[in-house]
Known about the structure:
Largest sheet of chain A: none
Distance between the termini of chain B: 57 Å
Structural class of chain B: mainly alpha
Shape of chain B: globular
Helix content of chain A: over 70%
Number of domains of chain B: 2
Helix content of chain B: over 70%
Largest interface: A-B, 14 and 15 residues
Largest sheet of chain B: none
Oligomer: heterodimer
Order of helices and strands of chain A: H
Radius of gyration of chain B: 20 Å
CATH class of the largest domain in chain B: Mainly Alpha
Order of helices and strands of chain B: HHHHHHHHHHHHHH
Number of strands of chain B: 0
Radius of gyration of chain A: 22 Å
CATH superfamily of the largest domain in chain B: UbiA prenyltransferase
Structural class of chain A: mainly alpha
Number of helices of chain A: 1
Number of strands of chain A: 0
CATH topology of the largest domain in chain B: Tetracycline Repressor, domain 2
Amino acid sequence: MDHDKDQRPDLAAERTRRRRSIAIALTLGFMVFAFYVATFVRLGGNVANGVP
Amino acid sequence: MSVQSEVGQVDLAVEPSVGDFILLMKPRVMTLVILTALAGMLVAPGPLNPILGTIAIISIAIGAGASGALNMWYDADIDARMARTAARPLPRGRVTPDEALSFGAILSVGSVVTLGVLVNWMAGALLALTIAFYIFVYTMWLKRRTPHNIVIGGAAGAFPPMIGWAAVTGNVSLESLLLFLIIFMWTPPHFWALALYRCRDYERVGVPMLPVVSGLQETRRQILIYSVLLVPLAVVPYFIGLAGIAYLVASVALGATFLGLAIRVYVTTEGRQADTAARQLFWFSILYLYALFAVLLIEATVSRMMA
């Protein structure tokens, strides 16, 4: 029992840390996606048309 | 690890959760920032790419949230001693000052760079100015030194519609300045109404809010003066062609109620009724600004869809 009690806070902390890591990963992923898409939007058809 | 709170509970040795970091960004303030920036963006003349518009709104919201986190980092000592703010993540010990500082700094730089690179640098520069103004001018310089803290510092909260406008047009114009002025004039009566019934809190932590320095009656007088200036100013967007008839009706009706509540605050000076009058004005002032910009936003959306 005592062993369980010692483990519980660690597990909870681990879960919280994992959720935080997922949130950071999602944010970074969104940033990459936003920059990728926005580059296309800003360039428009200029690359395809050969406009420098 | 934690800042000791005199009012709230301190959670020792806890891992900060995603929710704690969201709370650091003052989500309620963020919603108002999003609404006003979006309104500024949609009323602005010119084409609006939905992808760049979404990126602009997210950047503005995150920039505002970042300044909220930096504000909480700097004000952790007084937040811990005020009933209204004692449950924030820093006073409760759920987030360390270093974590809040790095979080706020990274998001500030990230939001400004993203807005500047992907949308335009006028909008990026205005967002940087907003964050800098809120942190350096309001939080660090004015808040603990002068009863004019809210009047001058309120400019930081008034920038979002200008940033939204700049995101579309790439510049600042008289129309966007008008939207700035409406929020700028709204801020003092809004915060002073709160300060009237939270006066003791501010006094205890040494923040020189107007009721603490100049007294309750002078604060009521100032609330009335700013309300008298705000209400007609909020109608002007209709007369310069920035808004339509729905906005005119809403701004007149909401403005009349705002003025009525401000007059009630001015004349009700004793006992619990005085507190109630101040509370009503505070909560109505939030509804007032939300409703005003929501109508502006809806009208602009409809006219863009019909164009």
